[in-house]
Amino acid sequence: MTGLLFSLWVGASALAAPRPLSVAPGQSALVFALSAVNEEVATQAVNKVQVSLSDFAGVMPSFPRAAVVVHFFDATKPASDLKVLNRIQRKYASRGVQVLALAERAPSLGALADQVGALKLDFPVLRDVDQVVMGRYGVSELPLTLVIEGNGNLFAIGQPQGESMEKGIEAEITPLLKR
Prior knowledge:
The protein is α/β, with parallel strands linked by helices. It has helices at residues 39-46, 80-92, 109-119, 132-137, 163-177, and strands at residues 9-10, 33-35, 50-52, 67-74, 97-104, 125-127, 144-149, 154-158.
């Protein structure tokens, strides 16, 4: 890791993770495909409403990125982290960063769509209805943020919130943008 270090980030420096996941930094991220709540944004990003991690990272992605920020969040809680992620998407999209948010525990599609629509987000919000992706990754605590390299490998894992979130993510994506 470079830049500001946060105790809740685990990256190339191999600090202890808050809780073990199914994958660790340096390993291939697990591919997923989910339907977007904000279909218009997804269509602008990948020309379809179902978004896959492999659209942006891994072997021969259709829309290659230097880094993909995947954020698992509890849709029943306030969405302040989504606003931070939107700033990151706006600031770094032209440099090859893509943000994806996976809504867990969403009360209903309508309520989630209203919440996402009100925020006017510039990145796809995906609904993990049965928490399949969350389960495959072994996510037990929300929120959780992953930074994935363009080659599809997991680069960093963290649970920053509030003020530390933006600085923490920026510290992790910066070295990937220099490659």
